[in-house]
Amino acid sequence: MNILILTYGTRGDVQPYIALGQGLKRAGHCITLATSSRFKEVIEQAGLHYAFMNDGMLALLDAPGNQGVLEDTNNLFQVVKRTLGLLKKIGPIQRALVDESWEAALQSKPDIIVFHPKAFTAPDISEKLGVPVVLALVVPGLVPTAEYPNMMLPRLRLGGWYNKLSYSVVNRLIGLSVAKHVRAWRKAHHLPKAKRFSLLHTADGAPIPVIHGFSSLVVPRPDDWPQTASICGYWHTEDDGHYQPSPELSAFLNAGPPPVYVGFGSMTGRDPERLADIVIEALQRAGVRGILATGWGGLKVKALPKNIIAVDQVPHSWLFSRVSGVVHHGGAGTTAAALQAGKASVVIPFFGDQPFWGHRVHTLKAGAAPIPLKKLTVERLAAGIKEITTNQKIIDHAAAIGAKLREERGVENAVAVIEKLADKHNQASQRASR
């Protein structure tokens, strides 16, 4: 089959889909992955076909005046308030992404489309082409459940009614941002007016299958999810097979006990120098060696003591097996990598789904209590680092979870679901043509 994967966002929104694409390719399919142009080389190095999407949204958020715009909040309404100033610039970028998604589909001639929520016209494109579509998520953020609220809203203890309502609120807010682009595209391509905007339903109201790229050991499948929603396990790339560390990193790792890794992914924040100062002082107070990842700008280092080293970008799958603990922002990908490596974490969430993952790590007893960025101090971070490096119960829990996760076959499970859905669609089409 020709399979088109549409995704957009930071590296955490792309890397799992590369892993999924590689798994589909190993199963004999031809894969095209469309996303921001900054990831073109990475995708092609992974052996997948690349289709163009502009880099405008990421460049906008990278701009100095916009760095940290989403900092210090896990409240969706605050996020909306702080980003209102960007909306005039975001609209044209979203419209361009819509057209680029369609162009990617025309080029790849897909038999099935797999999409990230930010590629929000995928269901409409699939309708126009007459092919099935699958929503692929690495967070449990869209399928409603009464068991817990949407991760973008506060964790209020109001019961199942509030939890379910929170998903409707989030879906409605997503619609307010993008529905106009969907309507315009459908009109331009002579498709009937949709009943409503939903990432979970086609224009005629039929449910869209949803696959989730995380483990049910970390987030159990809610009992009230529909049959169309499945949890497959984590989607990891095998990116460390040919990795060669620098001589400096090798020498540092060999010079003493395993260090603590500290990195915040693509989170930049308003004051990366202050954040680096807090981290360095906390590592010193905790009495541990440290590795600081500075590659995405989350930490800006002036000078380092001898027991701390700075690195640019090192594959988590290679590095985390060589450290004693992980301090990170709670992004879905970094959380998954730490858990799979069996390493205890201190999560410092910035916004969005990160508080959710910090809560899950702590609930699983695989890490210290999360420390929201706005409450981060040297004292709190030092205490968290000491806890994950000396509390044997936490260390053992993390190791046990990692051993189980390494036995899972998340990519293979997702491939099987996608192939089954494509076969089901083909059989239905054959029956309809008789």
UniProtKB/TrEMBL annotation:
Residue stretches making up the Glycosyltransferase family 28 N-terminal domain: 3-140
**Keyword Transferase: yes or no?**
yes
Protein's GO biological process? carbohydrate metabolic process; vancomycin biosynthetic process
A single MF term (Gene Ontology):
hexosyltransferase activity
Fetch the Pfam families from UniProt. EryCIII-like_C (PF06722), Glyco_transf_28 (PF03033)
- Please state every residue range assigned to the domain named Erythromycin biosynthesis protein CIII-like C-terminal: 300-401
- Alphabetical list of InterPro entries matching this protein: EryCIII-like_C, Glycosyltransferase_28, GlycoTrans_28_N, UDP_glucos_trans
Keywords assigned: Transferase
User: Which PANTHER family has this protein been placed in?
Assistant: STEROL 3-BETA-GLUCOSYLTRANSFERASE, STEROL 3-BETA-GLUCOSYLTRANSFERASE UGT80A2
Please identify the protein, giving its name as recorded. Answer: Sterol 3beta-glucosyltransferase
